[in-house]
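Weekly structure sync, notes
Attendees: PL (lead), two postdocs, one rotation student
Agenda item 3: pending single-chain targets
PL asked that the sequence for the first pending target be pasted directly into the notes so everyone works from the same version. It is reproduced below exactly as submitted, 185 residues in total.
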Amino acid sequence: MRFPIPAVTMLAVLVAMPAALPAWAQNRPAQPRPLGTYQSWTAATHTENGQKICFAFTRATRAEGVPGRNAQNVTLMVTHRPQGRDQVAIRNGYTHGRGAEARLIVGQTDLPAYTSRDSAFLRDGRAATTAMRSGREAMLRAPGPNGRGQAQDLFPLAGFSAAYDAISRECPASPAPAPAAPARR
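Predicted structure, written out during the meeting:
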């Protein structure tokens, strides 16, 4: 009986495989580690390019104005990164027209956002998270695909404060740099 793969080749593969596995495992993307679920919000952390990232997200309860869109695929996320905290983004499941502007409305607070591809990014994340901590729901209003019509996405804020506190504990703000000493004469 003839084997399609020579025994020497098979033996070489089997010997090399254990050495290759650690390199393969290192190239796999890190899986998020859950921090907890807080009513409508989930908090988690993961490593990106060797840096710890913390995020909290919720899914829309309503997504209107764009046919065929599922609210469960529309997410509102707050991220803390080493180079920036309170990054607020909404992935809303359709491609925005070039230069489209969006608005996130939380209670009486109206917050501007810019768009790129299928997401909207809040211009002032700190103002957004402050409003979200005291709000009941957030609504994103944005032009529909190719600027036709208007899309509205509604997000629950129940549990946001607890999820935000969890990611802030896990990824605390870096201490402010010490003020420079006055120059001596």
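Discussion points:
- Confidence is low (pLDDT under 50) at residues 1-25.
- The helical segments are 7-27, 125-134, 160-170.
Action: rotation student to compare against the earlier draft before next sync.
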